[in-house]
Specification:
Chain A: It comes from Hansschlegelia beijingensis. The complex is a heterodimer of chains A (521) and B (173). Chain A is mostly helical and 521 residues long. Chain A has 24 helices and two strands. Classes of the chains: A mainly alpha (521), B mainly alpha (173).
Amino acid sequence: MIEIFAQLGDGFIACLHPTTMLMLLLGIVVGLLVGVLPGLTLVMGVVLFLPFTYKMQVTDAIVLLSAMYVSGTYGGAFTSILFRIPGEPIHVPLLWDGYAMARNGQPARALGWTLVAALVGGLLSAVAMVMLTKSVASFALRFSSPEYFAILVFGLTSVIALGSGSLANAVIGLALGLLIASVGTDPIYGAARFTFDMPIFADGIEFLVVMVGAYGVGEVLSRLERGFSSKPLATISSTKTELPSLAEVGQVKAMLLRSTVVGHIIGIIPGAGATVAAFVAYGLESQFGRRRAQMGSGVVEGIVAPQSAATASVGGALIPLLALGIPGSGATAVILGAFMLHGIQPGPQIMMTSSAMVYTIFASIFIGIAMMCVLGYFAIRPLVKILDFPEAIVSAFVMLFCFVGALAIRSNVTDLWLMIGFGALGYLFERYKFPIAPLVLGVILGPLAEESFMNSMISFSNDWTVFFTRPIAGTVMALAILTLSLPIIGLIRNRRKPSGPPSAPQLSSVGGAERVLTPEA
Amino acid sequence: MGARLTQALPYVILLTVAAWLWSIANGVEYDARPDALGPAFWPKAALVLIGAMSVFQIARTLMSSSDDEAVGIAAGLEEEEDDAPRRPLLLALGVGLTIIYALTLDTLGFPVATAAFLIAFMYVGGARNHVAIWASSLIGVAVTALLLMRVVYVSLPRGVAPFSGVSDFITSF
């Protein structure tokens, strides 16, 4: 324990380096802006900034992207509460109680509660992240290739089960991702797969091309087809934050803690990001909370529960990323990509080989959350002012970032063509309601999954049962099967129920809510 | 029935592409080792998943008794998400501009091609504030090009003369 505190202290000192602090500040500001803008999702924002991290030190790169991730869970709260515009799906629950409180003449108070929820939820989750990551990594050192394969299968099935849209479409998206990842020279046999005699394919398809194309170009094309229909705001209304007193916070401390724990645990589960955390926390309060009957009418619980859970999910999502090398959400998948671009594979070894970097990242999360709340308190007016920017201009710059992302990888225009192709695929995915997250995770985790699978087959003489007979691998595989069967069971149960008109914040079925609101953050 | 066929069409295309890729995977050349899975095993497993799910979706779409079940939750959600009408012409213009950008990038160079793309894209997207469009495009491209070509040394297409002069001018700072 003392060793952890000592290393965390070193991490705080390392964070004070001017470049690291600059990256942290930049990440917080950009994350808040991305959260505010409805056309720009949190994952897309992190993806678009990834190419700019190529030449950075790996620690600065991860600090920048993690800061964007943290503050992206908070920025959209302003516009949800003040203008009823959720910048992110995460902040849809704030439309009910946050906006209602604002309409009751207390917008500053609603913003104050949001700030406290983000601060407390984020910091408590960060503490848990520091305490748990090393233990999880130490446990993961016992793993060999069957256990890794089982963990990867669990991660991928969770993404499928908890993603948006239909289960079959999610499986297709994942399989496409695995297929794209298999293009190029096979690592075991050196055989060329799907290269079509094109030299650039021999090196494989860069996952960044897929991510930038599918998330960035695909989304912009989808919104262009709708004529960039979101309207700029005519006026920025009264925008200030009124913090609650300590006594008021004390009255909701149990609920705040409960929502933070829920958010943190959901963050750990691969595939369930901040959006699911926000909805589950709100759902729990509306079902079991002390003031469940008043939920939706502008009560504090309806603001604090989703916001604290959303920010707390960040600390949770970073644990499997760092300790196991498995992203817990769309944004952490991109952060995993940033690690890989710098030649670092997160996993159990990272705590031993790069512990200084890991603890600097941990420290940056603490500082970032505090900085985010300070900025949110003092700079709320200029932040929401960005909504005045015409969407056509913002989207044109998103395209610019996409082009840069593609061109910067190998300085090859073929990558630009590939990115445009994946942009078209991303558009078709949006159009036909295929979730993009499984596709991207398939591309990122595909090579790792294939390697651990093939190594297992070589080591255990093609014995398939090894994934089920070894205690850890078998347990994880059972969890994967359970995760995958949950939506199917839910579907069967829903079909048996008599159909009735759905109510607005229908959160008794968490699965239903998350499937409507594309949880990819 | 027509709507159902339209709904099933993406899965029919997926199934066809999966079958074609399977035939390509069969032709992967490698030095076979006894009792070892070949390099085509993994992509073939992905193709089996795609094929199986596509068949399932086609069957569900064509054979389901109720239309709601046939089209899945997707169609039901679509109306809720965005009530603005789809404008295929705008989409075609956006895609066209992107393709023209990729075609002309090597000739015009990054700064000129990108500035032209941004200006055109903003007008296509409906922006009409000329000062904002031109100023943000030119300044945005200049700053990005300077940052990438001069500060972090990313190798971006410089273009051919006379357009390369713009790249040279930016990198001369």
